[in-house]
Amino acid sequence: MSEIAGELARVREAFDKPTLRLLDRKWAPFVLAVFKSAFSRDRRSVQADRLHSQVDAYLADLRSVGSEVPGKNGRALCVQWMNDLWLYRETGENGEEQYSLSSHALEALLLVDSLSRDRALISESRLTTIVDSVRHRATQANPDREARILRLDQEIAERTAERDRLQDGGEIVTATDEQMHEGYANLVDLITQLPSDFKRVEESVAAMHRQIVSDFRGEERPIGEVLDEYLAKTDALMSATAEGRAFEGAFALLRNDALLQDVKNDLESILDHPFATRLTTAERRTFLGTVGLIRKGIDDVLTQRNGLTTTLREHIVNHDVVKDRELERLLREINKELAVWMETAGPRSTVTAELMPGVLDVEHLRERFYDPLNHRPPPDLEDVSEYAPEPPSLDEMRRQGGPMLERMRDALVTFRGTGDTVSVGAAFNDLEPALRRPVEILGMLQIATQVDALSRAHQLESFETVRPDGSRRTFSVPRIILNDDETAALAALNYGTDHD
Protein backbone atom coordinates (compact mmCIF):
# COMPACT_ATOMS: atom_id res chain seq x y z
CA MET A 1 0.00 0.00 0.00
CA SER A 2 1.37 3.44 -0.97
CA GLU A 3 1.86 6.19 1.59
CA ILE A 4 -1.09 8.28 0.37
CA ALA A 5 -3.39 5.23 0.36
CA GLY A 6 -2.45 4.46 3.94
CA GLU A 7 -3.08 8.07 4.99
CA LEU A 8 -6.43 8.03 3.19
CA ALA A 9 -7.44 4.86 5.05
CA ARG A 10 -6.50 6.41 8.41
CA VAL A 11 -8.40 9.63 7.61
CA ARG A 12 -11.49 7.67 6.59
CA GLU A 13 -11.29 5.68 9.80
CA ALA A 14 -11.16 8.95 11.76
CA PHE A 15 -14.20 10.32 9.90
CA ASP A 16 -16.13 7.15 10.77
CA LYS A 17 -15.81 7.96 14.47
CA PRO A 18 -18.83 9.64 16.12
CA THR A 19 -16.94 12.89 16.84
CA LEU A 20 -16.20 13.74 13.21
CA ARG A 21 -19.52 12.29 12.05
CA LEU A 22 -21.21 14.86 14.28
CA LEU A 23 -19.18 17.75 12.82
CA ASP A 24 -19.71 16.51 9.25
CA ARG A 25 -23.54 16.45 9.34
CA LYS A 26 -25.85 19.08 7.84
CA TRP A 27 -27.46 19.85 11.19
CA ALA A 28 -24.17 19.89 13.12
CA PRO A 29 -24.47 23.60 14.14
CA PHE A 30 -28.00 23.01 15.45
CA VAL A 31 -27.06 19.83 17.35
CA LEU A 32 -24.02 21.44 18.99
CA ALA A 33 -26.04 24.56 19.86
CA VAL A 34 -28.65 22.36 21.58
CA PHE A 35 -25.94 20.50 23.50
CA LYS A 36 -24.33 23.76 24.65
CA SER A 37 -27.69 25.20 25.73
CA ALA A 38 -29.03 22.09 27.49
CA PHE A 39 -25.84 20.87 29.18
CA SER A 40 -23.07 22.60 31.09
CA ARG A 41 -20.28 21.77 33.50
CA ASP A 42 -22.73 22.06 36.43
CA ARG A 43 -25.60 20.31 34.59
CA ARG A 44 -24.16 17.12 33.14
CA SER A 45 -27.40 15.13 33.06
CA VAL A 46 -30.92 16.17 32.02
CA GLN A 47 -34.11 14.21 32.73
CA ALA A 48 -35.26 12.54 29.49
CA ASP A 49 -38.75 14.10 29.18
CA ARG A 50 -37.36 17.51 30.08
CA LEU A 51 -34.72 17.33 27.34
CA HIS A 52 -37.40 16.30 24.82
CA SER A 53 -39.42 19.39 25.78
CA GLN A 54 -36.35 21.63 25.67
CA VAL A 55 -35.47 20.50 22.15
CA ASP A 56 -39.08 21.12 21.05
CA ALA A 57 -38.86 24.65 22.50
CA TYR A 58 -35.53 25.29 20.72
CA LEU A 59 -37.06 24.12 17.43
CA ALA A 60 -40.07 26.43 17.86
CA ASP A 61 -37.89 29.44 18.74
CA LEU A 62 -35.64 28.93 15.73
CA ARG A 63 -38.58 28.43 13.39
CA SER A 64 -40.16 31.67 14.66
CA VAL A 65 -37.08 33.65 13.57
CA GLY A 66 -36.86 31.91 10.20
CA SER A 67 -33.96 29.51 10.89
CA GLU A 68 -33.91 26.17 9.10
CA VAL A 69 -34.20 23.27 11.55
CA PRO A 70 -34.78 19.49 11.35
CA GLY A 71 -38.31 18.29 10.74
CA LYS A 72 -38.43 15.81 13.64
CA ASN A 73 -39.66 16.48 17.17
CA GLY A 74 -37.55 16.56 20.31
CA ARG A 75 -38.04 12.93 21.30
CA ALA A 76 -37.18 11.59 17.84
CA LEU A 77 -34.07 13.77 17.63
CA CYS A 78 -32.83 12.66 21.08
CA VAL A 79 -33.29 9.00 20.16
CA GLN A 80 -31.42 9.58 16.89
CA TRP A 81 -28.57 11.33 18.70
CA MET A 82 -28.40 8.47 21.19
CA ASN A 83 -28.15 5.95 18.33
CA ASP A 84 -25.38 8.07 16.81
CA LEU A 85 -23.46 7.78 20.13
CA TRP A 86 -23.69 11.51 20.89
CA LEU A 87 -26.07 11.09 23.84
CA TYR A 88 -25.99 8.49 26.58
CA ARG A 89 -29.21 7.46 28.34
CA GLU A 90 -29.18 5.82 31.76
CA THR A 91 -31.32 5.48 34.86
CA GLY A 92 -30.54 8.06 37.56
CA GLU A 93 -30.51 7.67 41.31
CA ASN A 94 -34.21 8.62 41.52
CA GLY A 95 -35.19 5.90 39.02
CA GLU A 96 -35.89 8.35 36.16
CA GLU A 97 -34.23 8.09 32.78
CA GLN A 98 -31.80 10.87 31.98
CA TYR A 99 -29.51 11.92 29.15
CA SER A 100 -25.86 12.91 29.34
CA LEU A 101 -23.35 13.84 26.65
CA SER A 102 -21.06 11.13 25.39
CA SER A 103 -17.30 11.62 25.17
CA HIS A 104 -17.65 12.08 21.39
CA ALA A 105 -20.08 14.97 21.82
CA LEU A 106 -17.85 16.55 24.48
CA GLU A 107 -14.85 16.31 22.12
CA ALA A 108 -16.84 17.97 19.33
CA LEU A 109 -17.93 20.81 21.65
CA LEU A 110 -14.33 21.22 22.83
CA LEU A 111 -13.13 21.52 19.24
CA VAL A 112 -15.80 24.08 18.37
CA ASP A 113 -15.03 26.11 21.50
CA SER A 114 -11.32 26.11 20.70
CA LEU A 115 -12.03 27.39 17.18
CA SER A 116 -14.51 30.03 18.32
CA ARG A 117 -12.32 31.73 20.92
CA ASP A 118 -9.15 33.72 20.41
CA ARG A 119 -6.07 32.13 21.91
CA ALA A 120 -2.35 32.15 21.26
CA LEU A 121 -1.24 28.94 19.64
CA ILE A 122 2.33 29.41 20.82
CA SER A 123 3.07 31.15 24.11
CA GLU A 124 5.70 31.17 26.81
CA SER A 125 3.34 29.31 29.15
CA ARG A 126 2.62 26.52 26.67
CA LEU A 127 6.28 26.06 25.77
CA THR A 128 7.25 26.07 29.45
CA THR A 129 4.67 23.37 30.14
CA ILE A 130 6.11 21.25 27.32
CA VAL A 131 9.72 21.78 28.41
CA ASP A 132 8.95 20.92 32.06
CA SER A 133 7.02 17.80 31.02
CA VAL A 134 9.84 16.67 28.71
CA ARG A 135 12.45 17.21 31.43
CA HIS A 136 10.37 15.29 33.99
CA ARG A 137 9.73 12.33 31.66
CA ALA A 138 13.37 12.25 30.53
CA THR A 139 14.47 12.00 34.15
CA GLN A 140 12.06 9.11 34.74
CA ALA A 141 13.17 7.34 31.55
CA ASN A 142 16.90 7.58 32.25
CA PRO A 143 18.13 4.53 34.25
CA ASP A 144 21.54 6.13 34.91
CA ARG A 145 21.78 6.78 38.65
CA GLU A 146 24.55 9.38 38.29
CA ALA A 147 22.61 11.31 35.65
CA ARG A 148 19.56 11.49 37.93
CA ILE A 149 21.64 12.65 40.88
CA LEU A 150 23.32 15.31 38.69
CA ARG A 151 19.98 16.65 37.48
CA LEU A 152 18.59 16.75 41.03
CA ASP A 153 21.73 18.59 42.23
CA GLN A 154 21.25 21.16 39.47
CA GLU A 155 17.62 21.75 40.45
CA ILE A 156 18.55 22.01 44.14
CA ALA A 157 21.33 24.49 43.33
CA GLU A 158 19.03 26.65 41.22
CA ARG A 159 16.29 26.73 43.85
CA THR A 160 18.77 27.32 46.68
CA ALA A 161 20.29 30.26 44.81
CA GLU A 162 16.85 31.77 44.23
CA ARG A 163 15.89 31.27 47.88
CA ASP A 164 19.10 32.93 49.08
CA ARG A 165 18.56 35.86 46.71
CA LEU A 166 15.06 36.46 48.02
CA GLN A 167 16.20 36.03 51.64
CA ASP A 168 18.90 38.70 51.08
CA GLY A 169 16.26 41.18 49.95
CA GLY A 170 16.42 40.60 46.22
CA GLU A 171 13.74 41.99 43.94
CA ILE A 172 10.58 39.89 43.55
CA VAL A 173 9.75 39.80 39.86
CA THR A 174 6.02 39.34 39.29
CA ALA A 175 4.53 38.20 36.02
CA THR A 176 2.97 40.81 33.74
CA ASP A 177 -0.71 40.82 32.92
CA GLU A 178 0.00 39.43 29.45
CA GLN A 179 2.13 36.59 30.83
CA MET A 180 -0.54 35.70 33.37
CA HIS A 181 -3.27 35.82 30.74
CA GLU A 182 -1.27 33.50 28.46
CA GLY A 183 -0.76 31.08 31.33
CA TYR A 184 -4.44 31.29 32.26
CA ALA A 185 -5.48 30.53 28.65
CA ASN A 186 -3.14 27.53 28.61
CA LEU A 187 -4.61 26.20 31.87
CA VAL A 188 -8.19 26.69 30.66
CA ASP A 189 -7.33 24.83 27.46
CA LEU A 190 -6.10 21.86 29.51
CA ILE A 191 -8.96 21.99 32.03
CA THR A 192 -11.66 21.98 29.34
CA GLN A 193 -10.37 18.61 28.12
CA LEU A 194 -11.01 16.93 31.49
CA PRO A 195 -14.79 16.26 31.12
CA SER A 196 -14.36 14.36 27.84
CA ASP A 197 -11.42 12.40 29.32
CA PHE A 198 -13.45 11.34 32.35
CA LYS A 199 -16.46 10.50 30.16
CA ARG A 200 -14.30 8.30 27.93
CA VAL A 201 -13.22 6.28 30.98
CA GLU A 202 -16.89 5.95 32.09
CA GLU A 203 -17.90 4.65 28.66
CA SER A 204 -15.01 2.19 28.65
CA VAL A 205 -16.08 0.80 32.04
CA ALA A 206 -19.75 0.66 30.94
CA ALA A 207 -18.80 -1.25 27.77
CA MET A 208 -16.82 -3.76 29.82
CA HIS A 209 -19.78 -3.98 32.22
CA ARG A 210 -22.11 -5.00 29.42
CA GLN A 211 -19.59 -7.47 27.99
CA ILE A 212 -18.90 -9.22 31.29
CA VAL A 213 -22.60 -9.50 32.18
CA SER A 214 -23.36 -10.89 28.72
CA ASP A 215 -20.56 -13.44 29.05
CA PHE A 216 -21.69 -14.35 32.55
CA ARG A 217 -25.29 -14.97 31.49
CA GLY A 218 -24.22 -17.00 28.46
CA GLU A 219 -21.72 -19.11 30.39
CA GLU A 220 -22.47 -22.82 30.01
CA ARG A 221 -19.98 -24.08 32.58
CA PRO A 222 -20.94 -24.44 36.26
CA ILE A 223 -20.63 -21.21 38.16
CA GLY A 224 -17.98 -22.64 40.47
CA GLU A 225 -15.54 -23.05 37.57
CA VAL A 226 -15.88 -19.49 36.29
CA LEU A 227 -16.25 -17.58 39.54
CA ASP A 228 -12.51 -17.08 40.04
CA GLU A 229 -12.08 -16.07 36.41
CA TYR A 230 -14.69 -13.30 36.58
CA LEU A 231 -13.50 -12.07 39.96
CA ALA A 232 -10.03 -11.76 38.44
CA LYS A 233 -11.52 -9.74 35.57
CA THR A 234 -13.21 -7.46 38.08
CA ASP A 235 -9.95 -6.93 39.98
CA ALA A 236 -8.14 -6.07 36.74
CA LEU A 237 -11.01 -4.03 35.36
CA MET A 238 -9.25 -0.67 35.19
CA SER A 239 -6.07 -2.15 33.72
CA ALA A 240 -7.85 -3.96 30.89
CA THR A 241 -8.34 -0.84 28.71
CA ALA A 242 -6.12 2.06 27.71
CA GLU A 243 -8.55 4.55 29.28
CA GLY A 244 -8.66 2.55 32.51
CA ARG A 245 -4.88 2.34 32.76
CA ALA A 246 -4.56 6.08 32.19
CA PHE A 247 -7.16 6.78 34.86
CA GLU A 248 -5.46 4.46 37.36
CA GLY A 249 -2.20 6.32 36.81
CA ALA A 250 -3.85 9.70 37.36
CA PHE A 251 -5.98 8.46 40.24
CA ALA A 252 -2.91 8.05 42.43
CA LEU A 253 -2.50 11.84 42.22
CA LEU A 254 -6.17 12.80 42.13
CA ARG A 255 -7.09 10.99 45.36
CA ASN A 256 -4.49 13.03 47.29
CA ASP A 257 -6.71 15.50 49.17
CA ALA A 258 -3.73 17.59 50.26
CA LEU A 259 -2.63 17.95 46.65
CA LEU A 260 -6.11 18.98 45.52
CA GLN A 261 -6.28 21.54 48.34
CA ASP A 262 -2.95 22.96 47.18
CA VAL A 263 -4.34 23.15 43.64
CA LYS A 264 -7.38 25.06 44.93
CA ASN A 265 -5.14 27.51 46.82
CA ASP A 266 -2.98 27.99 43.73
CA LEU A 267 -6.06 28.73 41.60
CA GLU A 268 -7.12 31.40 44.09
CA SER A 269 -3.61 32.90 44.01
CA ILE A 270 -3.75 33.12 40.22
CA LEU A 271 -7.07 34.99 40.37
CA ASP A 272 -5.61 37.41 42.95
CA HIS A 273 -3.31 38.77 40.20
CA PRO A 274 -4.43 42.08 38.61
CA PHE A 275 -4.92 40.43 35.21
CA ALA A 276 -7.98 38.62 36.64
CA THR A 277 -9.97 41.88 36.67
CA ARG A 278 -10.47 41.35 32.92
CA LEU A 279 -12.21 38.01 33.52
CA THR A 280 -15.97 37.72 33.77
CA THR A 281 -17.72 36.37 36.83
CA ALA A 282 -18.56 33.17 34.96
CA GLU A 283 -14.92 32.67 33.91
CA ARG A 284 -13.70 33.14 37.48
CA ARG A 285 -16.32 30.74 38.85
CA THR A 286 -15.49 28.13 36.22
CA PHE A 287 -11.76 28.44 36.86
CA LEU A 288 -12.21 28.09 40.63
CA GLY A 289 -14.47 25.06 40.06
CA THR A 290 -11.60 23.02 38.59
CA VAL A 291 -11.10 20.96 41.76
CA GLY A 292 -14.84 20.27 41.95
CA LEU A 293 -14.73 19.20 38.30
CA ILE A 294 -11.94 16.74 39.08
CA ARG A 295 -13.72 15.32 42.12
CA LYS A 296 -16.99 14.94 40.17
CA GLY A 297 -15.20 13.13 37.35
CA ILE A 298 -13.54 10.74 39.80
CA ASP A 299 -16.87 10.05 41.53
CA ASP A 300 -18.61 9.32 38.21
CA VAL A 301 -15.93 6.84 37.14
CA LEU A 302 -15.90 5.10 40.53
CA THR A 303 -19.71 4.95 40.55
CA GLN A 304 -19.66 3.27 37.15
CA ARG A 305 -17.03 0.79 38.37
CA ASN A 306 -18.96 0.09 41.58
CA GLY A 307 -22.08 -0.54 39.50
CA LEU A 308 -20.25 -3.31 37.64
CA THR A 309 -19.05 -4.88 40.88
CA THR A 310 -22.58 -4.72 42.34
CA THR A 311 -24.10 -6.35 39.27
CA LEU A 312 -21.65 -9.22 39.35
CA ARG A 313 -22.13 -9.71 43.09
CA GLU A 314 -25.92 -9.78 42.79
CA HIS A 315 -25.72 -12.22 39.89
CA ILE A 316 -23.51 -14.54 41.94
CA VAL A 317 -25.60 -14.24 45.11
CA ASN A 318 -28.95 -14.73 43.39
CA HIS A 319 -27.77 -17.66 41.29
CA ASP A 320 -29.47 -20.85 42.59
CA VAL A 321 -26.50 -23.17 42.99
CA VAL A 322 -28.56 -25.87 44.76
CA LYS A 323 -31.05 -25.98 41.89
CA ASP A 324 -28.24 -26.33 39.38
CA ARG A 325 -26.74 -29.20 41.36
CA GLU A 326 -30.10 -31.01 41.63
CA LEU A 327 -30.73 -30.66 37.90
CA GLU A 328 -27.20 -31.80 37.10
CA ARG A 329 -27.59 -34.87 39.36
CA LEU A 330 -30.95 -35.75 37.81
CA LEU A 331 -29.60 -35.50 34.27
CA ARG A 332 -26.60 -37.60 35.24
CA GLU A 333 -28.88 -40.36 36.62
CA ILE A 334 -31.00 -40.26 33.48
CA ASN A 335 -27.91 -40.64 31.30
CA LYS A 336 -26.76 -43.58 33.46
CA GLU A 337 -30.10 -45.38 33.14
CA LEU A 338 -30.20 -44.61 29.41
CA ALA A 339 -26.78 -46.19 28.94
CA VAL A 340 -27.94 -49.34 30.75
CA TRP A 341 -31.15 -49.52 28.67
CA MET A 342 -29.25 -49.07 25.38
CA GLU A 343 -27.21 -52.21 26.10
CA THR A 344 -30.29 -54.39 25.50
CA ALA A 345 -32.70 -52.15 23.54
CA GLY A 346 -33.23 -52.63 19.81
CA PRO A 347 -33.53 -50.01 17.06
CA ARG A 348 -37.32 -49.66 17.46
CA SER A 349 -37.53 -50.18 21.19
CA THR A 350 -39.81 -47.89 23.18
CA VAL A 351 -40.07 -46.94 26.81
CA THR A 352 -43.30 -47.63 28.65
CA ALA A 353 -44.23 -44.65 30.77
CA GLU A 354 -46.93 -44.49 33.41
CA LEU A 355 -50.04 -42.63 32.32
CA MET A 356 -50.57 -41.25 35.80
CA PRO A 357 -47.71 -40.36 38.10
CA GLY A 358 -47.44 -41.76 41.56
CA VAL A 359 -48.44 -39.97 44.72
CA LEU A 360 -46.27 -36.96 45.39
CA ASP A 361 -45.46 -35.64 48.81
CA VAL A 362 -46.14 -31.92 48.33
CA GLU A 363 -47.36 -29.23 50.67
CA HIS A 364 -49.88 -27.68 48.27
CA LEU A 365 -51.84 -28.74 45.19
CA ARG A 366 -53.51 -26.47 42.70
CA GLU A 367 -57.26 -26.35 43.18
CA ARG A 368 -58.04 -24.73 39.85
CA PHE A 369 -56.93 -26.36 36.63
CA TYR A 370 -56.67 -25.10 33.12
CA ASP A 371 -60.01 -24.14 31.61
CA PRO A 372 -60.05 -23.49 27.82
CA LEU A 373 -63.08 -21.23 28.28
CA ASN A 374 -60.85 -18.74 30.08
CA HIS A 375 -58.90 -18.18 26.87
CA ARG A 376 -61.78 -17.63 24.46
CA PRO A 377 -61.47 -14.42 22.47
CA PRO A 378 -63.83 -11.63 23.48
CA PRO A 379 -66.97 -11.10 21.37
CA ASP A 380 -66.82 -8.76 18.42
CA LEU A 381 -67.40 -5.12 19.21
CA GLU A 382 -70.78 -3.74 18.28
CA ASP A 383 -70.80 -1.19 15.48
CA VAL A 384 -72.04 2.03 17.09
CA SER A 385 -70.57 4.43 14.53
CA GLU A 386 -74.06 5.80 13.74
CA TYR A 387 -74.27 7.11 17.31
CA ALA A 388 -70.93 8.91 17.16
CA PRO A 389 -71.18 12.67 17.76
CA GLU A 390 -70.41 15.13 15.02
CA PRO A 391 -66.67 15.89 14.81
CA PRO A 392 -65.66 19.42 15.80
CA SER A 393 -65.25 21.93 13.04
CA LEU A 394 -61.92 23.49 12.12
CA ASP A 395 -62.99 26.78 13.67
CA GLU A 396 -63.92 25.07 16.97
CA MET A 397 -60.56 23.29 17.13
CA ARG A 398 -58.74 26.54 16.32
CA ARG A 399 -60.50 28.30 19.20
CA GLN A 400 -59.22 25.62 21.59
CA GLY A 401 -55.65 25.77 20.24
CA GLY A 402 -52.57 27.74 21.24
CA PRO A 403 -51.87 31.45 20.72
CA MET A 404 -51.96 32.90 17.22
CA LEU A 405 -48.59 34.69 17.28
CA GLU A 406 -48.80 36.19 13.79
CA ARG A 407 -52.18 37.86 14.40
CA MET A 408 -51.04 39.06 17.83
CA ARG A 409 -47.92 40.67 16.33
CA ASP A 410 -50.10 42.27 13.65
CA ALA A 411 -52.38 43.66 16.36
CA LEU A 412 -49.43 45.19 18.25
CA VAL A 413 -47.98 46.71 15.08
CA THR A 414 -51.25 48.24 13.85
CA PHE A 415 -52.57 49.40 17.25
CA ARG A 416 -52.57 53.17 17.73
CA GLY A 417 -52.93 54.06 21.37
CA THR A 418 -52.59 57.37 23.17
CA GLY A 419 -49.11 58.83 23.35
CA ASP A 420 -45.95 57.74 21.58
CA THR A 421 -45.77 54.26 23.08
CA VAL A 422 -47.91 51.14 22.71
CA SER A 423 -49.15 49.18 25.74
CA VAL A 424 -49.51 45.46 25.10
CA GLY A 425 -52.52 45.31 27.44
CA ALA A 426 -54.26 48.19 25.67
CA ALA A 427 -53.67 46.55 22.30
CA PHE A 428 -55.02 43.25 23.63
CA ASN A 429 -58.18 44.82 25.11
CA ASP A 430 -58.83 46.55 21.77
CA LEU A 431 -59.04 43.23 19.90
CA GLU A 432 -62.29 41.60 18.88
CA PRO A 433 -63.65 39.07 21.43
CA ALA A 434 -62.67 36.06 19.32
CA LEU A 435 -58.99 37.05 19.62
CA ARG A 436 -59.01 37.76 23.37
CA ARG A 437 -58.75 34.18 24.62
CA PRO A 438 -56.74 33.69 27.85
CA VAL A 439 -54.12 31.71 25.95
CA GLU A 440 -53.38 34.74 23.77
CA ILE A 441 -51.85 36.43 26.85
CA LEU A 442 -49.06 33.86 26.72
CA GLY A 443 -48.60 34.67 23.03
CA MET A 444 -48.31 38.39 23.86
CA LEU A 445 -45.66 37.66 26.50
CA GLN A 446 -43.69 35.48 24.09
CA ILE A 447 -43.79 38.24 21.46
CA ALA A 448 -42.59 40.80 24.02
CA THR A 449 -39.73 38.46 24.96
CA GLN A 450 -38.62 38.28 21.30
CA VAL A 451 -37.85 42.02 21.33
CA ASP A 452 -36.60 42.00 24.96
CA ALA A 453 -39.39 44.29 26.17
CA LEU A 454 -40.45 42.17 29.14
CA SER A 455 -37.40 43.11 31.23
CA ARG A 456 -38.67 46.69 31.65
CA ALA A 457 -42.09 45.68 33.01
CA HIS A 458 -42.43 46.83 36.65
CA GLN A 459 -46.17 47.60 36.91
CA LEU A 460 -49.32 45.59 36.24
CA GLU A 461 -52.24 46.13 33.87
CA SER A 462 -55.50 44.28 33.27
CA PHE A 463 -56.17 41.97 30.34
CA GLU A 464 -59.92 41.47 29.68
CA THR A 465 -60.22 37.98 28.18
CA VAL A 466 -63.15 36.19 26.55
CA ARG A 467 -63.24 32.39 26.60
CA PRO A 468 -64.60 30.38 23.65
CA ASP A 469 -67.79 29.69 25.64
CA GLY A 470 -68.39 33.45 26.04
CA SER A 471 -67.38 33.77 29.71
CA ARG A 472 -65.09 36.63 30.67
CA ARG A 473 -62.18 36.85 33.07
CA THR A 474 -59.67 39.56 33.96
CA PHE A 475 -55.94 38.82 34.42
CA SER A 476 -53.27 41.07 35.92
CA VAL A 477 -50.17 40.96 33.73
CA PRO A 478 -46.91 42.98 33.81
CA ARG A 479 -47.40 46.26 31.96
CA ILE A 480 -45.28 46.10 28.79
CA ILE A 481 -44.59 49.24 26.76
CA LEU A 482 -43.31 48.91 23.17
CA ASN A 483 -41.31 51.75 21.66
CA ASP A 484 -40.99 52.49 17.95
CA ASP A 485 -37.89 50.32 17.48
CA GLU A 486 -39.53 47.32 19.10
CA THR A 487 -42.73 47.80 17.09
CA ALA A 488 -40.62 47.96 13.93
CA ALA A 489 -38.85 44.74 14.90
CA LEU A 490 -42.23 43.00 15.30
CA ALA A 491 -43.34 44.33 11.93
CA ALA A 492 -40.19 42.89 10.37
CA LEU A 493 -41.03 39.44 11.77
CA ASN A 494 -44.50 39.53 10.15
CA TYR A 495 -43.94 41.50 6.93
CA GLY A 496 -40.18 41.49 6.31
CA THR A 497 -37.46 44.11 6.81
CA ASP A 498 -38.67 46.25 3.87
CA HIS A 499 -42.08 46.91 5.44
CA ASP A 500 -42.81 50.55 6.27
TrEMBL record:
It holds the Pfam family DUF3375. It comes from the Bacteria. InterPro entries: DUF3375. Residues 374-399 are annotated as: Disordered. This is DUF3375 family protein. It comes from Cryobacterium breve.
